[in-house]
Amino acid sequence: MRISTTRSALLAGAVAVTLSATALPAAFAAPSATAVISEVYGGGGNSGATLTRDFVELANAGSAAYDLDGLSVQYLPGAPSAGSLWQVSALTGSVAPGGRYLVAQAAGAGGTVPLPAPDATGSVAMSATSGTVALVSGTTPLTCKTAADCAADTRIVDLVGYGTAVVREGGGPAKGASATASVARGASLADTDDNAADLTAAAPSPVNAAGETSGGGEDPGDPGNPTEPGTVRIHDLQGTTRVSPLDGKAVTGVPGVVTAVRTSGSRGFWVQDTAPDADPRTGEGVFVYTGSTAPAVKAGDSVLVSGTVDEYYPSSTTQSVTEITAPRVTVLSSGNALPPPVVLDAKAVPPAYVPSAGGGSIDALPLEPSAYALDLYESLEGTRVEIADTRVTGATTAYHEVWVTVDPQQNPTRRGGTLYASYDDPNAGRIKVMSLDPAAPVPTANVGDVLAGPTSGVLDYDSYGGYNLQATALGEITDHHLRREVTREQKGRELAVATYNVENLDALDDQAKFDTLAEGVAVNLSSPDIVSLEEIQDDNGAVGDGTVGSEATLTRFTDAIVAAGGPRYSWRYVTPQDGKDGGEPGGNIRNVFLFNPERVDFVDRPGGDATTPVAAVRTRKGVALSVSPGRISPASDAWDDSRKPLVGEFRFHGKSVFVVGNHFASKGGDQPLHGRYQEPVRGSETKRVRQAEEVNTFVKSLLAADRSARVVVLGDLNDFAFSPTVGALTDGKVLKPLITTLPRDEQYSYVYEGNSQTLDHILTSPAVRRFDYDVVHINAEFADQASDHDPQIVRIEVNAPDHGHSHH
């Protein structure tokens, strides 16, 4: 089993950081006289290895059995990056006094000798040369990334760092681990809390609870190439749940026809049984993983596959893919007909998305393919499928992937997408399509286009959206000529206020990005009076040299707006403290106001710096800001490592208008819609709710000083209209979310995994009675985009009478 890192590394980009290699205090977890990690081996299946799998062996130095129920073994890379996560393998049972307990981990394509029957099976692809393994009380992933932080975590029972691991016990990690060597304690199981002293390198020697060593307890199968099918069929190893009943077991001579081959990335091929059983739950296809070796088979080959059954989890929160690893393949004949594909359409796919496990894992739930879309897709994992004439709901990505829907009547948007309407309704008909032929990738498509004719291939699963069609035959894109929207100009007495996330803009970006974003402001938004920008970085972007100003970035941007036919904007922002506002490391991301001084005045009040909170001040003429521009409660831990809201006081036709620009914490770390835990935990939501409460409190302070204050709160809130975040922001009805005033099929500004949704918002206080609001679709639905967000605009009649309102 492997953990896929190719895309993760690309996404992580510049966020890798060097972590302190502080040695652990001597009292780490207290030297154990009972359960210890006795051996660690990450070279299983590597080139030159004898064993086919990685493993962790536990031992009990005590005189009583050690209960492992509810405990876990967890793994962290030796040099963890900011995006590295501890990977968890749950344990059950116990370790007898003086006994051993074997946790099997990932299998590779090499090796010939299986482990003895493991006592627990994990999904972790450990490094052969450097990493950290912890025995942990509980199954919640650890979060520590340094030796000192891990030393302070009382859940850790024992810990072994090997190679050059940052996280380790004592003066240094255990040395000598390789593809052919593990690190292990001596016969005395001595634990002095110094990994370098306690563990030494030697040939791996796994022992399970039954006392069996390598080759015992698990049938390694025929080491040759059988010519007759064995007793196991693909539907036997797929089983009636998401996890194979044969996980970790060797199989011999599994018959099938090769349906597709993958020659790059996660190499391997799919085989499908031509004699299916009658149970719709048990899949007839399976992926055969060949690792770094290119598959030596082709579609139409009739084969017998021997190897080890394995559940591959792309990440700790995703579902798994059942695979055969370390394969030995006999080709019986070639040129055979492929099994007919299963047609996926609105009749075949249930409208309900996924069963509930009360927040727990759905791995063990019996599949119900007629009731839930994800159960149907799981039952077809590795099987040939076909879709036809499907509408594009997510434009072609940089990775040559496109999202379509096989259920065109499911929450359609006005422009051809699929609306994400609630947490309970994730749109079951969405599916991602990519081509298995690198020379013929998915064509460029925008939302609303149609992938016409049949598209067929095999159904696979990954962590970037879940189930996907790996196409061997692609339909053609029918262009439905989606157009970028242009909003109307504001009238003379209307104040136009917009929000736009410009996606990490800095002065080192290409001029083309500035020009496209500038055209969005000058042309598509028709030159608003005020533009609240999110994701303006410092002038040298991700370079971490202490630069915090954005003058060069904003000069280039405002020059480009003039060149695009817009006005000469002025700007205001509060310079952040270096490295305190989250976002891309070194980028010093911040919110910025642009404003057209020919149309609107900015009220400058000095003193608004990175750490000074803005306050509402009651005056005889109404409420004013203590500082302008200013920040809301910058010392509150709600804003730790996050963008602080920018508040400004403007005057338009003699009237004050208060604008609050926001960029709330991201959804990073939330469990996926398609993942193994249902319903998914939205862990990042807690911070956004806190942030919303801070903004709500500030708006209430303005209205307490002057209930007729005109307040516009806007920006990238990173959450939906139906979320607790927006609920906390509007608490007490002090703010009205304008997105819900639009027709339902227009309530979106962002597209993710084929779902049209809203992360960006404009909200107004009760005194804003007449308004015209518009989401201007110029980015999110298009393959060619300057930002992944669509901007929004509201035109306010500041001197409006006391009744009625309108909206676009």
Give a structural overview.
This protein is mainly β and 808 residues long. Helix content is 10%, strand content 31%. It is built from nine helices and 41 strands. The strands form nine sheets. Strands 29, 32, 33, 34, 35, 36 and 39 form a seven-stranded mixed β-sheet that branches. It has a six-stranded mixed β-sheet with strand order 8-7-2-1-11-12. Helix 6 crosses helix 7 and helix 8 (685-705) runs parallel beside helix 9 (724-730). The longest helix has 21 residues, at 685-705. It is globular. The two termini are 52 Å apart.
Summarize the structure.
Helices cover 10% and strands 31% of the residues. It contains 9 helices and 41 strands.
What is the quaternary state of this protein? Answer: single chain
Q: How many helices?
A: 9
Dominant shape: globular
Total number of β-strand segments? 41
Instruction: Report the end-to-end length measured between terminal Cα atoms.
Output: 52 Å
Give the proportion of residues in helices.
Answer: 10-25%
Structural class by helix and strand composition: mainly beta
Weakly predicted, low-confidence segments: 1-27, 215-223, 802-808
Biggest β-sheet strands, sense, barrel:
7 strands, mixed
**Overall average pLDDT:** 91
How much of the polypeptide forms β-strand, as a percent range? 25-35%
Attribute tags:
single chain; about 800 residues; mainly beta; seven-stranded mixed sheet; six-stranded mixed sheet; 41 strands; globular; disordered N terminus; disordered C terminus
